[in-house]
């Protein structure tokens, strides 16, 4: 079955490249570095809030990460963040937040490697 | 005769108008701020400042007004720690230059309840993240009533 949520959508990179102003610092590189930095911080905050059972905070963090992931083209990561947003709100069955956070961590490591070969995310 | 349109989808009248505007981006995500600034610069904006949260934004807006160089257009994230989009918009609308400043809220969700409240307070537009140049151009031109700007 075809996975509609690709790990790194080249169309997102192309959209960012279109914004590049000639002669200025590489925008895509700058954004990938910011994405990786913020993702590491969000991952750390997700883990902290998981323990405190603050569903609202968990949802907000997942929401923020989802937006960034979609902008950089990490569609599968964005989908996992969306799943976490839903899980944080839900009281019924479904994948649990700790499982999804674990999947988010794995997916982020893979995305970071693609975005910045040699990168070792600090998770 | 209709003016030719550049690669950013704007004619020269629109580009000049946007290039003269002072813009403030309020967002706690550095990634979002940089992406929005890059998109705005492609749309001809040149004078762009950032604020990481509502408190910093309040100071920058106040200082700019005191210096008689108030912002013309403010983009703010709906969801920020501390003073969020609603609280900041309320403060702006009560401030000295607040009635004339255009405010566009950026958000990752179509929160209808939150949007209704922002409309009540006086928001000029919404942009759903992740922002794209085409959508941003449409929203800005609409907020500025520049959609039909034509030469001649």
Secondary structure: elements and pairs:
The complex is a heterodimer of chains A (123) and B (152).
Chain A (H helix, E strand, L loop, with lengths): L9 H9 L8 H26 L2 H18 L2 H15 L7 H19 L8
Helix pairs in contact in A: 2-3, 2-5, 3-4, 4-5
Chain B lengths: L11 H8 L2 E5 L3 H13 L4 E5 L2 H13 L6 E5 L7 H10 L7 E6 L4 H10 L3 E4 L4 H11 L9
Parallel strand pairs in B: 1-2, 1-3, 3-4, 4-5
Helix pairs in contact in B: 3-4, 4-5
Describe this structure in words.
The complex is a heterodimer of chains A (123) and B (152). Chain A has 123 residues and is mainly alpha-helical. Chain A has a single domain (10-115), classed as Four Helix Bundle (Hemerythrin (Met), subunit A) (Up-down Bundle), CATH 1.20.120. In chain A, 71% of the residues lie in helices and 0% in strands. The radius of gyration of chain A is 15 Å and the shape is elongated. The model of chain A has no long low-confidence stretch (mean pLDDT 87). Chain B has 152 residues and is α/β, with parallel strands linked by helices. Chain B has 6 helices and 5 strands. Chain B has a 5-stranded parallel beta sheet, with helices on both faces. In chain B, helix 3 runs parallel beside helix 4 and helix 4 packs parallel to helix 5. The longest helix of chain B has 13 residues, at 30-42. The A-B interface holds A 15-16, 18-21, 27, 30-31, 34-35, 37-38, 60, 63-64, 66-68, 70-72 and B 29-32, 34-35, 38-39, 41-42, 79, 108-109, 129-133.
């Amino acid at each position: 079955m075809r996975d509609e949520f690709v790990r790194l959508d080249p169309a997102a990179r192309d959209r960012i490249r279109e914004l590049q102003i000639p002669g200025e610092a590489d925008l895509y590189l700058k954004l990938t570095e910011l994405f990786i930095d913020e993702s590491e911080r969000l991952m750390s905050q997700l883990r902290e809030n998981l323990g405190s059972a603050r569903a609202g905070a968990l949802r907000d963090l997942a929401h923020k990460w989802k937006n960034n992931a979609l902008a950089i083209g990490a569609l599968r990561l964005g989908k996992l963040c969306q799943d976490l947003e839903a899980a944080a709100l839900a009281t019924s069955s479904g994948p649990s937040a700790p499982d999804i956070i674990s999947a988010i961590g794995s997916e982020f490591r893979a995305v970071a490697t693609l975005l910045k070969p040699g990168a070792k995310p600090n998770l | 005769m209709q003016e030719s349109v550049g690669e950013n989808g704007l004619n020269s009248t629109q580009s000049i108008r946007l290039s003269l505007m002072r813009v403030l981006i309020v967002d706690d995500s550095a990634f979002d701020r940089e992406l929005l600034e890059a998109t705005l610069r492609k749309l001809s904006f040149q004078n762009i400042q950032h604020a990481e949260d509502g408190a910093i934004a309040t100071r920058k807006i106040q200082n700019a007004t005191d210096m008689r160089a108030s912002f013309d257009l403010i983009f703010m994230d709906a969801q920020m720690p501390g003073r969020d989009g609603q609280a900041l918009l309320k403060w702006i609308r009560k401030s000295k230059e607040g009635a004339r400043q255009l405010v566009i809220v950026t958000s990752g969700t179509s929160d209808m309840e939150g949007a209704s409240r922002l409309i009540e307070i006086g928001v000029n537009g919404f942009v759903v993240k992740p922002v794209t140049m085409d959508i941003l151009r449409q929203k800005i031109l609409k907020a500025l009533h520049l959609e039909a700007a034509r030469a001649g």
